[in-house]
Design goal:
- The chain has 445 residues and is of the alpha/beta class.
- It folds into three domains: 58 residues, no CATH class; 264 residues, Type I PLP-dependent aspartate aminotransferase-like (Major domain) (Aspartate Aminotransferase, domain 2, 3-Layer(aba) Sandwich); 106 residues, Aspartate Aminotransferase, domain 1.
- It has 14 helices and 15 strands.
- The protein has a seven-stranded mixed beta sheet, with helices on both faces. A four-stranded mixed beta sheet has the order 1-2-3-13. It has a four-stranded antiparallel beta sheet with strand order 11-12-15-14.
- It binds pyridoxal-5'-phosphate.
- Pyridoxal-5'-phosphate binds next to helix 5.
């Protein structure tokens, strides 16, 4: 596919997508959601072409996966080369160099000047499960603490420590035992008089209070946090917040796990988002953009922790697939050499001033927030009461789609519009997106 420009040639969805939608309803389980009614034919850079020949700008990146852009030639060549050699032996049976090579790249790149080791898995949720297994095995303690507004995946433990009842938890009880939640540093929804920094410290210190009042630290294996909460609504941690959490973990022999699955891989202007907060996690979970759309996740962390489980306790049949690893190797090299973090910051420079202008212009935009190219608008019915406005999110998203812009929502109240463009998106494409967004808000009046 050639990168051209937005081109809408049918109604959305077009007739071919409509026919596929009908077939989908017959055979695909209801719990598998979709946020646009279109089916892709091909994709390149920041463009997606659907089966009806419509070309869209992708502002979702397959939920923060295609940071490197669709159809990156280096990635595709590496994958094709690997396909010609072998596709699976299971690293647990016959090993391959790429597993070791990508691990070497990751231990170098992750923050922390200590010995680290790596394990690979297939999905984000699986990495989270493994980080928790490792923390429990290493500390010999059971409890897991996470945050309100968190998202860590859909497997049982990952779902248990996730927030947002509908759709993630509804009807799936009983949840896992031995978990606890502390408040999210969601400053926009805080109603007191503290500054953002003071509020962040107050939230972090609630963890300390929990350890005094409710949970014996001798029982707590780990705290898991997203360095910028994703599904919960792109909640940027106040300055000092993550650092204070890390201190509390260190003081109480609790493993500090940072979930970089959505915010990592240059998305926020640093290779790992936690670098913005100057913290060095004991364990990091990563996935999504690690392998440019090929299923792969990893846990990277302190060697003594990663080595706690006995041989055979971690991994799985497909964990560390060689095709995915071939992609990951190129992704990492390219992101470092071609300054993808700089690209994320450039996107922010273009988008943020325009989004703040829109906030002044439209009464439904309550908040504009983000770090690098992980940006959201929070919509409200009234700027004073901040009543969440989910309906207008739906209207804006469907207006934009009809004009050729793919956007997705987020937020515990489903009232945020999130922007996760491929980091290779060009300035004029962003300009188009922002113009369409402006029109979409005008159409609400
Ligand atoms: C922060 C975070 N953790 C974990 C996950 C789960 O990843 P997966 O859907 O690959 O299981 C996600 C997915 O959105 C995520 O954003």
């Amino acid at each position: 596919m050639k990168e051209t420009q937005v081109n809408i040639v049918t109604d959305i969805p077009g007739p071919k997508s409509k026919a596929l939608l009908d077939r989908r309803f017959d055979v695909i389980a209801n719990g598998v959601s979709y946020s646009t009614p279109i089916f892709v034919e091909e994709a390149k850079g920041a463009f997606i072409k659907d089966v009806d020949g419509n070309t869209f700008i992708d502002m979702a990146s397959g939920i923060g996966v295609m940071n490197i852009g669709h159809g990156d030639e280096g990635v595709i060549d590496a994958v094709k080369g690997q396909l010609d050699k072998f596709t699976h032996t299971s690293f647990n049976v016959v090993m391959y160099e790429s597993y070791v090579k990508v691990a070497e790249q990751l231990v170098k790149l992750t923050p922390g000047d200590f010995n680290k080791k790596v394990m690979f898995a297939n999905s984000g949720a699986e990495a989270v499960e493994n980080a928790i297994k490792i923390s429990r095995k290493y500390t010999k303690k059971p409890m897991v603490v996470s945050l309100e507004c968190a998202f860590h995946g859909r497997t049982y433990m990952a779902m248990t420590i996730t927030s947002k009842v509908k759709p993630y938890k509804d009807g799936f009880a009983p949840y896992c035992s031995d978990t606890y939640k502390i408040p999210s540093p969601y400053y926009y929804r805080y109603e007191g008089n503290l500054s953002e920094g003071e509020f962040g410290l107050m939230c972090a210190n609630k963890f300390e209070t929990l350890l005094k009042g409710e949970l014996n630290p001798d029982m707590v294996a780990c705290l898991i946090v997203e360095p910028l909460q994703g599904e919960g609504g792109f909640i940027v941690p106040p300055k000092g917040y993550l650092k204070r959490l890390q201190e509390i973990c260190n003081e109480n022999n609790i493993v500090f796990v940072v979930d970089e699955i959505q915010a990592g891989f240059c998305r926020t202007g640093k290779f790992f988002c936690c670098e913005n907060s100057c913290v060095t996690p004991d364990l990091i979970t990563m996935s999504k953009s690690l392998a440019a759309g090929f299923p792969l996740s990893a846990v990277v962390g302190r060697a003594e922790m990663m080595d706690a489980a006995m041989s055979g306790g971690l991994g799985g049949t497909f964990s560390g697939n060689p095709v995915s690893l071939a992609a990951a190797r190129v992704v990492i090299e390219k992101m470092v050499n071609d300054d993808y973090s700089g690209k994320a910051l450039h996107i922010a420079d273009i988008m943020m001033p325009r989004l703040f202008e829109l906030k002044e212009k439209y009464s439904v935009i309550g908040d504009v927030r983000g770090q690098g190219a992980m940006i959201a608008l929070e919509l409200v019915k009234d700027k004073r009461t901040k009543e969440p406005n989910k309906d207008d999110v739906g209207k804006v998203l469907s207006y934009c789609l009809k004009k050729g812009v793919i956007l997705i929502s987020a937020g515990i109240f489903s009232n945020c519009i999130r922007f996760l463009p491929p980091l290779v998106i060009r300035d004029e494409q962003l300009g188009y997106v922002l113009d369409v967004l402006d029109e979409a808000f005008t159409s609400l009046k």
